Amino acid sequence: GPDGVGAAPVCGGSGGVWRKVAWGRGAAVGQGGGAYVQPGRLGDSGREIEDVVAGLHEPSGSVLDVVQDVSRSIQGRRRYERKVTTAQTMVGEALSLGCGVCQDFAHVFLGACRGLGLPARYVSGYVHGLGERATHAWCQVWAAGAGWVDLGPTRGEIVDERNGFTAVGRAYPD
């Protein structure tokens, strides 16, 4: 649709055109991205996210530089641990636990990007690896000139063809 819901993800490879998109607060909003600056239903706004945003470096460089800084910051505060959270865990609780799974990393990342004025959306899908296929969550960030670009905040990587797209929304419940 016009807001990008249901559109296939854009895989960024090594950064490509995304690396060339200059950072500018609010400049990234476009092509329906405005809806994805609004908070999701799991509380990705508020004091906890404001604290995460306050702890980031001053945004500069490309949009890729900014979101990689966000991702590194989140990884530095959290560890991956299964069976600690659920699909309905609020962002504040996930932050206070300091651990969780890919969807928790994704929700914190979404809140931080939105706190910086970057449209970002949650992606549900799956990842192929070593003969297995598992459910997975990652994010897409809108970058003017590049469109929606996929980033996995759990591992801090650009999402590639090993990931299969299922759906997008502002948060998992969408």
Outline type: globular
What is the residue-averaged pLDDT? 74
Secondary-structure element pattern, one letter each: HHEHEHEEEEE
Computed over alpha carbons, the radius of gyration is: 15 Å
Can you characterise this structure?
The protein has four helices and seven strands; from the N terminus they run ααβαβαβββββ. Strands 6-5-4-3-7 form a five-stranded antiparallel β-sheet, with helices on one face. α2 crosses α4. The chain is α+β, with helices and mostly antiparallel strands and about 170 residues long. The protein is globular. It has helices at about 45-55, 65-75, 90-95, 100-115; strands at about 80, 100, 120-130, 130-145, 145-150, 155-160, 165-170.
